Amino acid sequence: MCDARKAKASNTWLQRRIDEQIFSSGLLYVVFTLATTDHYRQQMFVITSPAEAKERRQLYRYSSRFYIMTHFSISIVSDTVCPWCYIGLRNLQAAIDHRTANHPNDTFSLTWHPFQLNPNTLQGQTVDKRTSYETKLGSDGARAVFDRLRSAGTAAGINFSFGGRTGNTIDSHRLLELACRQAANSEPSSAQSVPGQKVLQTRLAEEIFADFFEREQDITDPTVLSKAAVRAGLSGVEQDFKAFLASDDFVDVVHKTAAAQRQDGINGVPHFTINDEFTVEGAQEPTAFLHLFGKLAKRTRAVL
What does the pLDDT look like over 216-233, one tens digit per residue? Predict the structure, then answer.
């Protein structure tokens, strides 16, 4: 371990700078890059307690900069036919964009978990989307909901269209599970993302939401889902995803995970959990997320 006090006394040390390209998956990050005439020596610490933070602070008190970054791990429980989940995602993304614009070294990861609003719908059976709303809410109630969604959607950059058909969402959730597993194998860490980067699962969720709510596509159709997977960048071609959807892969995983959400008391979506501590229920405005980001970051920095 490098002792910065000794380094300060040596004329071989030319500068101390922060390498902003490295991040880790802990709560608090302190990164030092110490440059010598011969090579770069890099020290990175993931601080796990106030006592450790105090120790590191004392050791590196002569460093010209002390760099801290916060990682926000966000768990999203949603259904792919939930319009408020789509709005909630857009509001969350707006909050992340605002946060990274002002704190460019903070990082975010989004992990999606299944929930089925209509779990008893027979797989392969679809109904007209507009009719399904009218059956539940009546004609006047459906019109009121459509007006409210159009207004909220416009604010979030979504052009809602209520034509098309709807049905059981199990296959879309299975595909999201596949995206999660592919990302875990191909990205630096399944729990990390650099600022502004959209990981595979989120890209797929966006494509499925857009298909259902804006393009009037039937997301129970394997062809529609397979094309969404290709556009999102999953590894494979359209025929690969059709073969996957024709199998039983991840059916039990989705059912068990969705059941576990209800057992945990989640009865409505969207439901966001940030760093396993704070929850946001419903399609809240970006300010709701920004408040919690600031609260968590302030707590992180307070240990120093």
Answer: 999 999 999 999 999 999
